[in-house]
Amino acid sequence: MDGVTAMRMHDGSRQRRIRVDFAAAVNRYTASSLSPLHSLHGLPMPTVTTSAKLNCSAAALRSYLGATANLPKTSDPELQLEVLNAPADVVQGGVIEFRVSALGFKQRMQHRYVSVTETEIVAEQTDGPTRSWTHKQLIEDHGDGTCTLTDEISFEKPGGMLGFVMTDDRITESIEEGMEFRYEALQAELEAG
Length: 193
Fold this sequence. Notes:
Blueprint: E1 4-11, E2 14-21, H1 22-26, E3 47-54, H2 58-65, E4 82-85, E5 95-102, E6 105-116, E7 120-127, E8 132-141, E9 147-156, H3 162-165, H4 168-192
Antiparallel strand pairs: 1-2, 3-9, 4-5, 5-6, 6-7, 7-8, 8-9
InterPro entries: START-like_dom_sf
């Protein structure tokens, strides 16, 4: 049965048996979008990876990213990001609570910083509309006054009716557009000093 699993589905008072080809479901994602993170259902979560080379030192970028008050400055204005509660500095175990307007919905979210080093910040959703959300920021210093910021976001779309609106494709598109704005805003903020 190589990757095919039989499942029982309850449909009202009837019970029906269906076959699900999990290998085919996994193959929907290209090799570059596969994540080591897996959903609650065991399938790899969609992952969006973007990066930009910035004209600043890695230390300057890390310092900027380490101040939670800077988050709204580099977020797409359409998101209307509002930080509700957060520590002044990004620290491991710290929790940030914020509100955004995404895909026509105002959502309150909460993330916990699970890994914070000089070159990496990883935040995981503890409360929000998606079933799962992990944002990893990696900083690579080039030693010439420039650095590369790579953002890797893995997510599992919401369940229920919201999942019909917030599809994988719409979430991916929103992330990509948001990152484009973010990198331009980051460069402008860092140049302004």
